[in-house]
Fold this sequence. Notes:
Distance between the termini: 23 Å
Radius of gyration: 23 Å
Organism: Seminavis robusta
Domain Chalcone/stilbene synthase N-terminal: 107-274
Keywords: Acyltransferase, Transferase
CATH class of the largest domain: Alpha Beta
CATH architecture of the largest domain: 3-Layer(aba) Sandwich
Largest sheet: 9 strands, mixed
Mean pLDDT: 83
Number of helices: 14
Order of helices and strands: HHEEHHEHEHEHEHEEEEHHEHHHHEE
Number of domains: 3
Domain Chalcone/stilbene synthase C-terminal: 329-446
CATH superfamily of the largest domain: Thiolase/Chalcone synthase
Low-confidence stretches: 12-46, 48-62, 287-292
Family: Belongs to the thiolase-like superfamily. Chalcone/stilbene synthases family.
Shape: globular
Amino acid sequence: MMKTQVNTQLLAAISSEQQHIERATPGSVSVPGLKCMKTFNPLITPELMENALKTKTFGRSKAFSPNLSFAVDMVGSPATAFPETSYTQQEVGNILDIKDPVTWKLLSAPHIKKRHLYLPPAIGGDQPRQPTPSQRNATFMKGLDDIGVKAVEAALSDTKTDIKEIDMLVTVTSTGLALPGVSGILIRKLPFRGDVLRSDIVGMGCNGGASGLRAIATQLGHMASIRGKECKALLLCCEVNSAYFVNRDGNIGDGVVNSLFGDGDVASILAASPFGSNFAIPGSPSCVSAGADPRPPKISLLDFQSITIPEYFEDMSYNMDEQSQLPFFKLSKRIPMAVGNSVEIPVRELLDRHGLAPADVCQWVVHGGGKSVMQLVAKNLGLDHDKDLRHTKSVLRDYGNISSGSFLVSLQRLLAEAQEDLDVLQTGDVVALIAMGPGATIEVILGVVTAAAK
């Protein structure tokens, strides 16, 4: 696939010219010959553009040239935390005392090898078959205290970010309920500033992490503009799916859930400047690593698109079992078709807005909703299932579907790969991130690599 990249030659010319002039009044600049871009970073004045065009020689580019004036940067790579204990699918079936042969067939499928879970000891003796609601909530709180805090601390440490620098805290979960919210509990446990702006996204399911990124991206840039300085946000996806495992004899829906979902938390830090994002010119500080600790590529989030298909609302939802009075997650066999066959709609709407096509996307970061979902997504977007969804497949294999944070684990693996192989993500590459969940809802994010790994 030929890579579609931004016109970094023009940006390098502008950066070189910018070093020789004083900062001017922010303004909007029309750029001749660039199909998609209407304005550059507000710091780029008409005089600067004119001088750059005069002093540098290059042809008019048809390459993707995004307006990064309102883009938000992902700082470093997402950080993950999982329960210490992992189980094979066979072990999960034994511990949950699975009797249903169809569920055992699901557990025997090769696309999931193991999952990290907070499971009780194997059922036996006087132990009740189903945990009580209070026990389920205690399992969620245990996960928040354990892997939730670990993921946040790892994100701060990996990016060398002081917790006092965080201006916004957004948490996402669909597997627990807490007041004053997961974000409030985190502030009590960790030394965030008291004036940190906090939001809790609850009940959006597997697309919740992408919804959280969208919420941050649409608020953080505004905050940075108002305050006149860089602002940072922290996103935490906290999912303890095992807290809601229900095992009703002969219920295929329970079997699907119990064989698919895993526990795991993901934290990511984002930053916004009053002037938007910018491309790192080779040799600049943001492109240079210190010592033997290479930086991952910097991805800037440019635009978002979503679609909700209410016809499938009942096919993926929490419900209450009348007999046991326990909540359970319903996941019908129509869901792979619903999201797999609809994913092209928001993807093409988002790409069309920027003059792009699926073939222009260099890397795909897709939520691992299950084997059938991945196959249909690949088919409808014209992707190579093994190549383009390699990290989606590996995350599902190693952890199962961890709901809202799954696609961020895939992104973590892509960024790690790019540090080993510099051809994987180069400055100017287009990246698409996709997550899907209840509603049925599909979220798509358009990102651009604004600094390659070094």
